[in-house]
Amino acid sequence: MTTSEIIIDYLRDHPNCNRGNIEKSCGISTYPVRYALYELIKIGVIGKYQYANNDWRYFIIDESLYKKKNPITVNEQIAILSAEKFDQFIHEVTPIISNNPGKSSLFYAEALGKNLQSTVRRLRCMENKDMLFSDTRWRPAPISNKATLWWIKGQEPTDLDNIDVSGEPLRNIKVEKCTKTLYRKVQKNEQFIREILSLREKKLMERLQSENRPMPIPSYAEFFKRQEGRK
Q1: Is 189 in contact with 231 (CB distance < 8 Å)?
Q2: How far apart are the first and last CA of the chain?
Q3: Would 180 be classed as within a structural domain?
Q4: Partners of 17 in beta bridges
Q5: pTM for this model (two decimals)
Q6: Is position 28 within any domain?
Q7: Could you tell me which residues come within 8 angstroms of residue 108 by beta carbon, excluding any fewer than 6 positions away?
Q8: Across the chain, which distance is largest between two alpha carbons, in Å?
Q9: How many domains does the chain have?
Q10: Which end of the chain is more exposed for a tag (fewer CB within 10 A), N or C?
Q11: Domain harbouring 61, CATH code
Q12: Torsion 193-194-196-197 (CA) sign
């Protein structure tokens, strides 16, 4: 069995455990577990949420959506929703950056119609995943603040010294107000599960169409499993 398969089997019986538990119980060293968790999160198999400082808990998304005995928890809902929102952000912002490279975070926030702070946070997440490249520099006088410019990873210019940031938009602090968009008031389980399943199936269909692969027909076992989980 691969490291990913071992982790999935363990999480089925021990949901919402941290990485240390996985490493100790499965007998796998830190680096393979970290890489496997990263890949499983990336393809939407598992989710994670912060339980305490430096304590992240992991769970299998489909197990949480279809389980019948225990309702999906608030932390699991927020984690799944946050991951779906992040995937949607990547889908929306990537063509904008590709068509308008070397612009500031505020430019992309205004183009998307989103809050600046949430846009910067998600751009940084994309950079940490090696999807974007950024360069931060001071604006020319008399403006005394910095501007962070963004490019698709691998498409950044070789001569960054000649990049001009004088025309980049400035943040209007008086107008913009920080609004936290995470759902602290959680939806009912049935409504939430229907919406998330619809998003996940749509995303799967888009990926299969981009790869010229047919949409798989679910087996009877999978069909009845879904129906049981929705009761």
Answers
A1: no
A2: 33
A3: no
A4: 58
A5: 0.66
A6: yes
A7: 93, 96, 97, 100, 119, 123, 150
A8: 68
A9: 3
A10: C
A11: 1.10.10.10
A12: positive
- Distance, in Å, from the CA atom of 107 to the CA atom of 225, rounded to the nearest integer, reads 45
Q: What would the 3-class secondary structure string for the chain be? A: CCHHHHHHHHHHHCCCEEHHHHHHHHCCCHHHHHHHHHHHHHCCCEEEEEEECCEEEEEEHHHHHHCCCCCCCHHHHHHHHHHHHHHHHHHHHHHHHHHCCCEEHHHHHHHHCCCHHHHHHHHHHHHHCCCEEEEEEECCCCCCCEEEEEEECCCCCCCHHHCCCCCCCCCCCCCCCCCCCCCCCCCCHHHHHHHHHHHHHHHHHHHHHHCCCCCCCCCHHHHHHHHHHCC
Instruction: Per-residue pLDDT tens, the chain, 231 aa: give them.
Output: 889 999 999 998 898 999 999 999 999 999 999 999 988 888 778 889 888 888 899 998 888 777 656 677 888 888 888 888 888 899 899 999 999 998 889 899 999 988 888 899 999 999 988 899 998 877 665 556 778 899 999 988 887 777 766 656 555 544 444 444 444 444 455 666 666 767 667 766 766 677 676 655 554 445 444 544 444
Whether residue 143 sits in one domain with residue 94: yes
Encoded tokens for 207:
């990926």
Q: Which of the listed residues 22, 49, 72 is the one where a domain comes to its end?
A: 72
> CB of 90 within 8 A of CB of 126?
yes
Q: Token pair for residue 136?
A: 């931060």
Residue type, 109: A
- Tell me if 184 is assigned to some domain: no
